[in-house]
User: Fold these one by one.
Assistant:
Number 1:
Amino acid sequence: MTKDTDPDLRFMALNDLEKEMSNTINHIASYEVDEYARILLTRLNDEFPEVRTQSLKCFESLPYRLKVDILPVVRTLINKKPKKVSITSTIYTMALHNILENLPLIEEVHVGIINIVLPEIFSDREKFKLEIDYIEILTDLIEYSGKYFNQTQIFQTLGFLTEVIFTADAIISKKSISAYGSLSKSIESVEIIENFLKNITQLTNSYKNFYEGQSKLLSVISVSFASNSLSFEPFALQLWEIISSCLKVNELGDLDQDYENQQEKDNLRVEALTAALSLFKNCKSDNTYFLTGDCLDICEVLIKYDPYGDNSEDDEESNALADDIKDYNDFEDEDGDSYSDYEDDEDADDDNCSWKVRLEALNVLSCVIEN
């Protein structure tokens, strides 16, 4: 009935087949499970969306039923290349997500899938930078099977993601930073970190837009400390030097006559303070203790930073910021992003982002004092 001309019957047949498989899992021959997988793969191409959706849902339980025999299914799905550039994932990528998310805790299965998927991901770097499917698949692979990567695979994937962060479009670049964060949890080798930092610094220095390049680097630093502070803490001094150089405290009095350029400078300061917050929030050893004095001095200057304001009101504004900081941190949206009335009012009245510098400096100052 899964081949019936009536789409409603095909839908019901898939639903009934899924229930039957669930009820008789211990009494099904291996060839029957293989046939079930073949049917699901076929129905992913169904002309009716309801049938495709039902087939997609069935992939959630497939890894448990097939175990190591899921590998041919993964190979089939990874070979279904997107036919055109799109901002949405294909149904084959969604099916792979359902498989990877529900893999059994069997090392052989995870290692086998890694060995199938990684070479396909690395085979066409240019397509990876254009098509959303590849970064979605790699992100899922890292998230659900990352602990089974060997150090060579980690090194290769780091190099690949580093290049993509600095050469792909904005969406894929941001997703690559997120994927890097998940992968960095598995980094244990000091040598790998040293090579990674060397490569990403070189890419930053050669990036066409100075502020964008530095912003990407700071985002990577923030994620590094948040994801694997234990491994990155020995590099705290080296990374702090990058952070402090982006704050450009010695240039605070040099107001750029080009308003847009000034906002880029201040946005970079915000990114640098965010990285500093990640450093001092997650690293609490002697490696960071000796940085606190320098950080406190910088924050003391930045909480009064107001290039377009009246400096005589610095003290009053700093006190107002201190009152606002608790409200700012108490409100979060569904994605965990913080908001406050202060932020909304400032955004509505002015696109001058120096207030963000002051607020983020106060966040860092509070973190350093508390820790």
Note: Confidence is low (pLDDT under 50) at residues 339-349.
Number 2:
Amino acid sequence: MTALQIQARHVLKVESRYAVARRFKSDVLASTILFPADASEFRSDLVWVEDTAYTMRRQPAIAGPDGLYPTVQFRTAGQLQWDIPLRMLRIINSDLENADTDPVLTPRQRNLKVALFKHRLEREISAWTVLKNPAVMTHNVTLGPGARFDDISSTSSDPIAVMQQGAEEIMRETGLKVTDIMIPQPIMRKLKQHEKIMSYAVNKLNLSKDREIDGEIIERLIGYDYVEPGAVKVESFTFNNTPDSPYSATQISQAYCTGPNVIMAARAVPGGTDGDDNGFGLGKYMALLQKAMPDDPTVQIATGNDGMGVMEFPNYDIAGGGTTTQVISLWAPFVQNAKAAYAIFSAADASDTASYGTSLQF
């Protein structure tokens, strides 16, 4: 049998069906769940706030000094303002580069994917910057050593009691049940291992000892008179919390936007219900992106996606021609009723690198 000559052997070449890359997708994001999208015609605007202290105060039904019965009326406590920042990322698309690049890389499409993810990431970080601020989240508790959710064997740690208290405060202030409990994935792992929660599941819910703790069990232990079914949501979204310079392909440190915190909230309804709303927050976005460059045939605009838009302009300064793509985001997290939320700060020990690495230190 003739031996295969080395000159005839396969020459290595790049596989063109796919690239080894991460698909950035998450269905559980505070920026979309706790701040549901609500369109705004302008970048800054106002909303009225009812004087609920007056509304809920007793009004004695007795005649006054003039012999008349007291008069009641709707009162306002002022206004709240939102301001929507403009964020823009640019992409330079060279026609020659697109034509001469491996088809699997498709620079135009891949660059757009990166820009859209970076905008989504910035929205999530913006949302959690608000949620981690005690000056905004005025209903909160900070857990110390021994009482944290990840102190799974401590008799002083009782996550269910903490969440019941938070839900009760929300209901007392708003009359609403908790619709969302945002739990970072590492903290949910600790709740599954928590001895007191496992004991409650067996002794209070009569579940078998081999039943795994999940969101439904936690909701049942808190009580459906406090929370809506499906309230527990586990956030697994992470980002690379390292600087871009000096550049390193291996420089990576995955972190949760959440930090070591758990947030409970009664979700707002965009546009309100019968002219009122008492929920927590809204994702205010500018809905008039189409009017930024009206009646210009050289500009292509793709809009939608809750205040995120893609605008493409011809670029004649590139050799061979091309386009400049602007990926625009007009969105802001707006808290309309801080009393509709309860923040549990330091629900886990972020410094426990053996359990979490540095993932909870953002």
Note: The mean pLDDT is 89.
